[in-house]
Amino acid sequence: MIDFHAHILPNIDDGPSSIEESVQMLKSLKSQGITDIVLTPHYYCLKESIDIFVDQRDKSFEALVEALADNDFSFTLGSEVLLHKNLFLNPDLDRLKIGNTNYMLVELNLAGNIEQTLYNIEQLIYSYNIIPIISHVENYSYFKRVPNTIIDLIELGCLIQINTCSINNLNRCFIQKLIKHNFVHLIGTDCHNCSTRKPVYREFAQFLDKKGLGWFLNYAKENGANVLKNNRVRIKEPIPFKRSLIF
Ligand SMILES: [Fe+2]
User: Fold this and answer.
1) pTM of the full structure
2) What is the pLDDT of residues 90-116, one digit of tens each?
3) Which end of the chain is more exposed for a tag (fewer CB within 10 A), N or C?
4) CA 125 – ligand 1 centroid, Å
């Protein structure tokens, strides 16, 4: 399976603060059946320039690879980019994309209005030739109130990612609904460390199997393979929700 969202690189964001912890996280992921990892440290445009971020990310990656005695993971460098209007001060955002693809993992800030968010997403797509992958869509309460906004994002061309660890929190029910409605395309562990935000995958897969949603794992894997090859993803038609999920 491909993990599309992971904070495993050491000493770069709020992920692991030592290489040893990164290595432990990788061991855990391997034992749970993850074979490919997209490394996605946070990028905040208000905090640093893309030059500085990419330089730190590459150094962190180099240090990690050096520390791995034997590595049979396939790694791809990426980032988790917080959507903000100042991003668009950069003439290009290519180095924030996932590997050599046109895909980019995008974290939303829904504290503002949704129109502004959709406008910024359109800017990424039409002005920067980026295909946004919206990270951990279940974490935004806005989407529980107005779930069909996710269809708007999909129709614009976005892909949708959920966190595997959401089976262990209040979003457990929500992610099942999102999967059943064909609102989700990719998964990520969004792991940050070995304790409070550790890698969870096996439990997620078992949970989906038990709920009769095992098909989704193959679907997410196939979608992931297409993203990494920079192919278009063949998505299932989303089924609209009839009502809000929050009353
Ligand atoms: Fe994250």
Assistant:
1) 0.97
2) 999 999 999 999 999 999 998 778 999
3) C
4) 21
